[in-house]
């Protein structure tokens, strides 16, 4: 990386993926070679450096076929990639933490200016159009609302005011308790959550055999057995996933500005949703009135009206993606700051600095990546509509293909935006970095995420179900129960998504620069070394 010279090139990597030295709006290697005595005992080479030269030249990658000293993030068989001739330009910019006494942060967190400005400009224009169009339609929206009579049950209103604040407060308290337990017993949570998945499949199989059809029962039996087999094969990877989960919980709860940002994103989304409804509803009401007034046209829409509908959907998908990804980039930047600085040297309010960068220099990159997912979501909606109305084999195949592509892009973007947060890259540069990481340690990333996913999802579902049933029973109202369940699910989602962002960020940081935490965070370093050591015995 910039500002880091070493006469030797790296010949081994702890995770099968050595940091490439990307010199974007983010991190730079400190001007030293990290040498920790414990690495040789664990089978790791001492930290090797990069020889820095002007200009960026991609010399290609050299495949090394030998046993990985760390068990290999990329493969349990020990094969790993070695990066060769990776050279990047000297980083020049403004430090994000100029007043921080930590020299490492001053050299790593560098702002090089705005990225992907065109995407940010277009997105801001889209938001302005939504706001202006919504204001123009306020009169129509208000008159239509007043033209209908709405009756509200006074008893239900009383119960809503009485029970829903309690449901929200209980949800916050419960999620805090679950975070504390996850911090203390991460491996237990991972094992229990995945075992519950197996149990649910077995229960569904029993119900299928008894009440539905033998084919349904057989399908769930196969799913349960496959998940149990998978859990057995990856059991050696649980310590690593547990270390990432526990430390992610610790960081986001200590620097709770990430959680506050997540809740603020809900407010922003609600405000935007109001303007979007004021823009869309009166517009399509006018279109319906014109279409019904034209007897020859009937209720069919014109091609121009179809394009307008697609444009509205794209605007909505894009805006929601940007809002969610700003939270992810903010959380990733905060966790990366903690990783490179250490828990005792982290500058004050890193979440504010990360949010500032997410909304300024990295905002264009967020808009660019979010636009790609929004386009795929639009195609998914169109394919779903076609499959529902035409019911043809080809439309179902198209829907399946677009759905898979959409999910892959969403998953890819999680890691791409993590690189944006860490290095301040443009989206294209971050995508290249992510692709190189996937080629070298993508299997471990996928397995790690699939170990953590059930924990977060089941915590959200079980807590929300308990709150929904409890408050619904107390209020003697199924409506109160459903609303309480939804409130709890939203609160858990807002909190737990920051935890997942932290898990991804810690994985990327450790995969690219494992040596730095040997001195800055010895406890976390020891946990990760134990996790990587366990990978040597992993079956997959």
UniProtKB/TrEMBL annotation:
Keywords: Membrane, Transmembrane, Transmembrane helix. Residues 1-55 are annotated as: Disordered. InterPro entries: Choline_transptr-like. It is found in: Cell membrane; Membrane. Pfam families: Choline_transpo. The keyword Ribosomal protein does not apply. Signal peptide: none annotated. One of its GO terms (molecular function) is transmembrane transporter activity. It comes from the Eukaryota. It is a multi-pass membrane protein. GO terms for cellular component: plasma membrane. Residues 16-55 have a biased composition (Low complexity). The chain crosses the membrane at residues 117-136, 163-181, 188-210, 216-234, 255-281, 301-318, 323-341, 361-379, 391-408, 414-431, 451-471, 477-496. PANTHER family: CHOLINE TRANSPORTER-LIKE (SLC FAMILY 44), PROTEIN PNS1. Belongs to the CTL (choline transporter-like) family. Choline transporter. This is Choline transporter-like protein. It comes from Bodo saltans (Flagellated protozoan).
């Amino acid at each position: 990386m910039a500002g880091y010279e070493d006469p030797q090139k790296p010949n081994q990597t702890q995770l099968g993926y050595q940091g490439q030295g990307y010199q974007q709006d983010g991190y730079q290697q400190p001007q030293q070679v990290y040498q920790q005595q414990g690495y040789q005992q664990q089978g790791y080479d001492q930290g090797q450096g990069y020889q820095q030269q002007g200009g960026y030249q991609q010399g290609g990658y050299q495949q090394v076929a030998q046993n990985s000293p760390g068990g290999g993030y990329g493969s349990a068989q020990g094969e790993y990639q070695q990066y060769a001739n990776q050279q990047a330009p000297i980083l020049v910019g403004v430090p994000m933490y100029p007043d921080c006494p930590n020299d490492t942060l001053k050299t790593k967190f560098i702002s090089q200016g705005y990225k992907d400005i065109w995407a940010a400009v277009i997105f801001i224009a889209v938001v302005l159009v939504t706001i202006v169009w919504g204001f123009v339609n306020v009169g129509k929206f208000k008159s239509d609302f007043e033209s209908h009579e709405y009756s509200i049950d006074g008893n239900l209103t009383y119960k809503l005011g009485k029970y829903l604040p309690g449901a929200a407060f209980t949800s916050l308290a419960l999620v805090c308790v679950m975070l504390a337990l996850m911090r203390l017993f991460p491996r237990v949570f991972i094992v229990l959550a995945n075992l519950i998945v197996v149990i649910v499949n077995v229960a569904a199989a029993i119900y299928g055999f008894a009440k539905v059809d033998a084919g349904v029962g057989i399908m769930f039996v196969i799913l349960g057995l496959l998940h149990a087999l998978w859990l057995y094969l990856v059991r050696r990877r649980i310590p690593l996933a547990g270390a990432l989960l526990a430390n992610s919980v610790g960081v986001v709860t200590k620097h709770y500005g990430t959680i506050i940002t997540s809740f603020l994103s809900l407010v922003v989304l609600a405000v935007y949703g109001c303007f979007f409804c004021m823009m869309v509803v009166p517009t399509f009401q006018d279109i319906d009135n014109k279409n019904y007034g034209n007897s020859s046209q009937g209720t069919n829409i014109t091609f121009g009206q179809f394009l307008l509908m697609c444009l509205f959907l794209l605007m909505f998908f894009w805006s929601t993606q940007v809002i969610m990804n700003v939270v992810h980039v903010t959380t990733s930047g905060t966790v990366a700051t903690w990783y490179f600085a250490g828990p005792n040297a982290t500058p004050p309010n890193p979440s504010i600095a990360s949010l500032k960068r997410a909304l300024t220099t990295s905002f264009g990159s967020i808009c660019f990546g979010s636009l790609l997912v929004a386009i795929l979501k639009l195609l998914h909606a169109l394919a779903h509509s076609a499959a529902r109305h035409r019911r043809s084999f080809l439309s179902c195949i198209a829907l399946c293909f677009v759905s898979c592509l959409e999910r892959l892009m969403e998953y890819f973007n999680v890691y791409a935006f993590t690189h944006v947060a860490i290095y301040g890259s443009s989206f294209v540069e971050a995508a290249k970095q992510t692709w190189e990481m996937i080629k070298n340690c993508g299997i471990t990333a996928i397995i790690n995420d699939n170990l953590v996913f059930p924990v977060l999802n089941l915590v959200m579902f079980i807590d929300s179900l308990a709150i929904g049933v409890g408050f619904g029973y107390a209020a003697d109202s199924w409506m109160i129960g459903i609303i309480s369940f939804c409130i709890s699910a939203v609160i858990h989602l807002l909190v737990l998504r920051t935890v997942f962002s932290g898990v991804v960020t810690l994985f990327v940081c450790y995969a690219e620069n494992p040596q730095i935490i040997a001195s800055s965070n010895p406890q976390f370093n020891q946990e990760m070394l134990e996790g990587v050591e366990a990978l040597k015995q992993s079956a997959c």
